[in-house]
Amino acid sequence: MLSAVKSAVYTVYARRLTRELSRASLPRHVAMVMDGNRRWARQNGFHDAKVGHRYGAEHLDEVLVWCRELGIHHVTVFVASVDNLRKRDTDEVDNLMLMIEDVIAQRLSHPAGVWQVKTAGRVDILPDSTRHALKLAEEATRDRNSGFHLNVAVGYDGRDEIVNALRALLEAGSHAGRTLDDVAERLTADQIASHLYTSGQPDPDLVIRTSGEHRMSGFLLWQAAYSEFYFCDVHWPGFRKIDFLRALRSYAARRRRFGS
């Protein structure tokens, strides 16, 4: 009985938040740090971190449905950093890669899907099977014209991204026969942005991090320069729709200053 009452109250509250947001200015691009999978598993009595990664990967499907329903056309999710892949136990990393292959890449590639997938990160440090699965997901979704774009950040480091963008910019200038002085003199922020993983997409308006951590961990260092931030105490697998709607409500209530 109590569970039914809680469910009814949750449904009513979610509907009220959705009505409020129907009149609000919503972000075009939401970035999310999907943190807390392992802690969620421990809190729920699971002794294996693999369970948390499985629930976390599967939960992405649901969150993307919420974004689509609300008309949020650009989403970037932080799945794993370079440090995550290098410093965590081999078994845990192997399982995380399997979740990316079997859950994220495979489901996003389904013909009924709407999201156009792009990988953001050092694919060269990923296992061959993971790199192949993400490549297939990109190819399978490349021609989708729904307008919904998903960036999957895995093997990602924000400083590496900026360094690689500058390297690509210098290489392009060299191939065009331009001198280093000429490239430097004409260098603009837009030119650098055009070589980032999110090239052609708007910068994130809102960055959400779950699990209560109040840091960025090198996520979208360039793109998030003027983003609004929302830190949520719940772990990623337990991130509910009302938590997402509250984040959007908080964003809508803010007066964005863009550095001023």
Automatic annotation (TrEMBL):
TM spans (from-to): none
Assigned EC number: 2.5.1.-
Keyword annotations: Magnesium, Metal-binding, Transferase
InterPro entries per the UniProt record, alphabetical: UPP_synth-like, UPP_synth-like_CS, UPP_synth-like_sf
Ligand binding (substrate): G36, N37, R38, R39, W40, H53, S81, V82, D83, R88, R209, R215, M216, S217
Entry's Gene Ontology BP terms: polyprenol biosynthetic process
Active-site feature positions: D35, N84
Record: residues binding Mg(2+): D35, E228
Cofactor binding, note field: Binds 2 magnesium ions per subunit.
Keyword Metal-binding: yes
Cofactor: Mg(2+)
EC class name: transferase
Self-association and partners: Homodimer.
Free-text function comment from the UniProt entry: Catalyzes the condensation of isopentenyl diphosphate (IPP) with allylic pyrophosphates generating different type of terpenoids.
PANTHER family: DEHYDRODOLICHYL DIPHOSPHATE SYNTHASE COMPLEX SUBUNIT DHDDS (PTHR10291:SF43), DEHYDRODOLICHYL DIPHOSPHATE SYNTHASE FAMILY MEMBER (PTHR10291)
Family per similarity comment: Belongs to the UPP synthase family. Z-FPP synthase subfamily.
Xref: HAMAP family: ISPT
Protein name per UniProt: Isoprenyl transferase
Source species of the chain: Micromonospora mirobrigensis
